[in-house]
Design brief:
four-stranded mixed β-sheet; 13 strands; binds oxa(dethia)-CoA; Peroxisomal Thiolase, Chain A, domain 1; 2 domains; single chain; five-stranded mixed β-sheet; alpha/beta
Length: about 325
């Protein structure tokens, strides 16, 4: 059990530009059929003028509005990103500045598990620091770190942001935080920062760096941990099991596999990867927003969130939905 908090508001911000699988066919040797069949992805959003930090600020603004929470009441902002334009300050600090919020602010980097890690951390810190309202925002412009000549990765990712507002409540609505990790022994999923010279150390091969991924290895890791996290959560729920799942949207086949293994119905799992592809740590809050706006997520639902990604990392949490 973590803090007595509830989700009071949720939002998403996605770039205007839509890139279809047919657009991808013009960039690399791929096909709409291959992408759709192997991943479920049909379109993705890609930033043009939008930035990671601006999408984050807008998402937080909208989530606060939806929650009816005043900026002055926010005591904590945790950003989840691997693609902030700023080395420092944090994306959360930038949000603070744009919206004029005086609060504790920091970023957390945990790949695609970032939102779950940030959510669990925020809820715990609300208890530790006695904070009434907190915001968790995940924002990513993965397209800036995608090798657009590598068909094995460039078709998989998209850009976007999502945010949730956490508010103290009489009863605890966030339960059973799970955060786990295992060493990435074989460079399965990583992206380096560009090398930078100093007056004392020259850099001869300055080149842009991109995301590298051994897709099949991540797939194997993903299906294993998603199933085990969901089973763990189910066990912890006891006689009040969750009735719906919002998983990290990396590949529809991973989700299908897990639905089968968990013996659940397809309708119990929210999937929007077809529209947005994999927006890294932003997939879960974007999906939460869509699920809520479409009426799939209803007051009284008990949902499980589950994520996995670079690190290698995975995590989950159960939420009683109250809005
Ligand atoms: O959120 C972070 C975590 N990321 C993930 O969860 C991703 C997990 N992994 C996956 O989703 C899948 O492994 C991929 C979608 C990345 C790849 O699917 P796959 O079924 O595992 O394909 P593969 O890597 O085994 O490649 C099969 C074939 C290869 O051709 P050959 O060597 O058999 O001739 C690839 O070169 O498919 C080829 N291929 C493509 N063909 C057309 C790889 N990418 C493409 C492409 N278009 N975009």
């Amino acid at each position: 059990m973590i803090a007595s908090v509830e989700i009071a508001g949720v939002s998403k911000v996605t770039p205007r530009r839509i890139v279809t699988n047919s657009d991808m066919e013009k960039l690399v040797d791929t096909s709409d059929e291959w992408i759709t069949k192997r991943t479920g992805i049909r379109t993705r959003r890609v930033v043009d003028k939008e930035t990671t930090v601006d999408m984050a600020a807008e998402a937080v603004k909208q989530a606060l509005k939806k929650a009816g929470v005043k900026r002055k009441d926010v005591g904590l902002i945790i950003g989840s990103t691997i693609t902030s334009e700023y080395v420092t300050p944090s994306m959360a600090d930038y949000v603070k500045k744009v919206l004029g919020i005086d609060a504790v602010a920091m970023d957390l980097s945990a790949g695609c598990s970032g939102f779950i890690y940030a959510l669990n951390t925020a809820a715990s810190l609300m208890d530790t620091l006695d904070i009434g309202c907190a915001v968790v925002v995940a924002s990513e412009a993965i397209s800036k770190y995608t090798d657009w000549t590598d068909r094995r990765t460039c078709v998989l990712f998209g850009d976007g942001a999502g945010a949730v507002v956490l508010r103290r409540s009489d009863t605890a609505c966030l339960h059973y935080p799970v955060m786990e990790g295992t060493a990435d022994k074989d460079d399965v999923l990583y992206a380096l920062r560009e090398k930078r010279p100093t007056p004392f150390s020259k850099v001869s091969d300055v080149k842009p760096e991109y995301i590298h991924m051994k897709g099949a290895d991540v797939f194997t890791y993903a299906v294993g941990v998603v199933e085990s996290v969901l089973k763990k959560l189910l066990q912890m729920c006891g006689d009040r099991p969750y009735n719906k799942i919002i998983p990290h949207q990396a590949n529809e086949k991973i989700i299908d596999y897990v639905i089968r293994k968990m013996d659940m119905r397809h309708e119990q799992c929210f999937i929007n990867i077809g529209e947005y592809a994999n927006t890294s740590s932003a997939t879960i809050p974007i999906a939460m927003y869509d699920a809520y706006e479409k009426g799939w997520l209803k007051k009284g639902d008990r949902i499980a969130l589950v994520g996995f990604g670079a690190g290698l990392s995975c995590g989950g949490v159960v939420i009683d939905w109250t809005i």
